[in-house]
Amino acid sequence: MGQGMSGFASDLTHATYESPDIVALYARPDGLQKPEETLLSQLRPSLGAMDMLDIGVGGGRTTRHFAPLARSYLGVDYSAGMIARCKAEFPAFSFAVADARRLASVADESFDFVLFSYNGIDHLDSRERTMALTEMKRALRPGGLMVFSSHNANYLPAIIDRFRFRIHGNLRETLRSLKWSGVFWGKNGLLQYRMPLAAGRVHDGTHSFRSSALYYVRPDIGVAELRRLGMIDIVCAGNESRDFVPGDDPRLAQDPNPWIYYASRKPERI
Question: Is pLDDT above 80 for 194?
Fold first, then answer.
């Protein structure tokens, strides 16, 4: 999401992701999530013939695993600080500051694989989310693979419980609990009346509330979103699982994982 833009890209979240401490945090060499490990294993034989677009690349967590195997690789992020860090860390690969909602520099049908990992899409509201998914589909060649992860609304009761006020054995921890409970409910005042939530934005404490609210969606609703977009072969995996299941699996609606990976394909041209 680009520099010099109004609205979302100039808000609290953008400022947070430009902060040196957050850039350094995302530049740490963390490994892949379990569904990403499965994805890499499945794609490894064919990645050498695929052009990959890695959206919300952050400090290059996914770059070190996918980029060396792809025919070509472009990593984009709306944080100039993140992209500068990636260029310094991975000089052999291409990176650019870009807006996921408007990938102006990306030509139609120019990639075989588009990845938007680590729930980056959840910083967008419902309308902007649709814009980003539409852009991801536009960038794909027919038959191309789209993968992204998103927070699971089924996990919200655990988030709420995390910020429940508790009396501890010492005053310091009790005051700490009071503080964060107050912050949470100050930012999510009506959340308890919206539960169970199928889809919506929640301030879940990410970056100690230095970011704006994140979008949570129930997995079956997320699958329906992709179907409306015209995507096919939809499969999903919880972030704690290495196994993808079909998008029409009835168990998805109750999946309890903190976030869900969605993989789907753009239909072949008829």
Answer: yes
